[in-house]
Each structure stands twice: as C-alpha cells, then as structure tokens.
Amino acid sequence: MHNKSNSLIELEIPDAQVYYDEGFFAFAKAKQLFTTLQEQTPWRQNKITVFGKTYDEPRLTQLYGDDQMEYSYSGITFKALEWSPLLQSIKEDVEAATGHQFNICLVNLYRTGADSNGWHADNEPELGKNPVIASVSLGQERFFHLRHSENKEWRYKFPLKNGSLLLMAGATQHTYKHQIAKTKRDIRPRINLTFRKVVDASV
Ligand SMILES: O=C(O)CCC(=O)C(=O)O
Ligand SMILES: [Fe+2]
C-alpha cells in the first residue's frame, strides 16, 4: 500500500490487507457529516431477489461517482449521481490518507439494528483484479465481521467507530467475505461510505 497516513494501521489478519484508522474524522466532524448526509442524501430502497423471491434490501443506499458511471451488484444497477461538494471533500480526504484514487462511492444507511449487509465480497469484475475499498463509518458503531473463505478459524469481528476509516486491499476480496450483522440491540442509525474504483466501466 502507498500509505501516506501515519494513522492507518495494518490489522493482523492473515491472507488479507486490511488497514484501520479509528479517528480518521474527529467526533464533532463525524457527527456533522452524519447529520448532513442523512438529510441531504436522496435515499433509495432497492429490491433484491434471492432464490426467486424479492425483498427490500435491508438498508437504504445511494451511489455517487464520476460522469454518471454505472455500477451493479446483486442484480441492482445504479447510475451514479454527481459528487456533492461534501462527498467530494470526503473523497479527497480519503484519497490523501490512503494514496488511492476512487471514482465511485456507495452510501449505505443502516436505520436500525434490523438493517444489515449480509456476507459478501466486493469482487465485481469492474473493480479490477484486487479491489481497493475505503470505507468511512459515521454514527452508530456497528461490528464488522470478516471470515476467510477456506480457513474457518480465521474469523474476525471489530467495531467500526464513528469517524473511522477502514481500507481493504490486496487479495482481501478474494480471500475473505465481510458483513454487518443484524442486532437486536436498540441502536441509532449509521451511515457508511464505501469508496471504490471502477477500472473498466464496460465490463
Ligand atoms: O457498512 C459497512 O461497513 C460495509 C458496507 C459494505 O460492505 C458494502 O457496501 O459493500
Ligand atoms: Fe462490502
């Protein structure tokens, strides 16, 4: 990794490249970003089809990116909205901290503990061979789970703090799956921004 930040530290996860900065945005700044994004984002409720049945995706989302770029996952195709000045500035902060450039950002809103993001890897072909994904967390702390695809003993779980930055790189999207699990705890909403780089929009 081209690490320009002193605060991103590599986590000890075998067969993966995962970096974390717990205090990427200070608490007050993170709080302000959360409030503005919650109010200003035109949230979408997508439908997902699993084994022929259609459900509401268990969170709200939106996609921002360069030049009306398109991005698909789980059969959902988005056309990216133009970067808002706020997201553009967050993107620049994330690029400066990671040394990577990004051209799309998927925004997730987890309204309650019933909202979640099931086990998956972000390995869509348009993200290239080894996708680099930078993930900013705002608001309610939620647990991030990682599990290795082959070695069942390699399972990790840690809280993503308000204002934190997580970076996944190298083979991580091939070797591990990740999730945000549901919880029965009565909790507040969380916003997550995942910055990605589409390398070939025609794939
Ligand atoms: O909410 C998170 O921290 C993870 C989001 C995620 O994995 C995704 O959008 O692909
Ligand atoms: Fe993901």
TrEMBL record:
Gene3D superfamilies with a match to the protein in the record: Alpha-ketoglutarate-dependent dioxygenase AlkB-like
Keyword Chloroplast: no
GO molecular function: catalytic activity, acting on DNA; demethylase activity; dioxygenase activity; hydrolase activity; metal ion binding; oxidoreductase activity, acting on paired donors, with incorporation or reduction of molecular oxygen
This protein's record includes keyword Oxidoreductase: yes
Requisite cofactors: Fe(2+)
Matching InterPro entries: AlkB-like (IPR027450), AlkB-like_sf (IPR037151), ALKBH3 (IPR032854), Oxoglu/Fe-dep_dioxygenase_dom (IPR005123)
Keywords tagged on the record: Dioxygenase, DNA damage, DNA repair, Iron, Magnesium, Metal-binding, Oxidoreductase
Domain of life: Bacteria
Limits of the Fe2OG dioxygenase domain: 101-199
Gene Ontology biological-process annotations: DNA alkylation repair
Listed PANTHER family: ALPHA-KETOGLUTARATE-DEPENDENT DIOXYGENASE ALKB HOMOLOG 3
Protein name: Alpha-ketoglutarate-dependent dioxygenase AlkB
Species per Swiss-Prot/TrEMBL record: Nonlabens agnitus
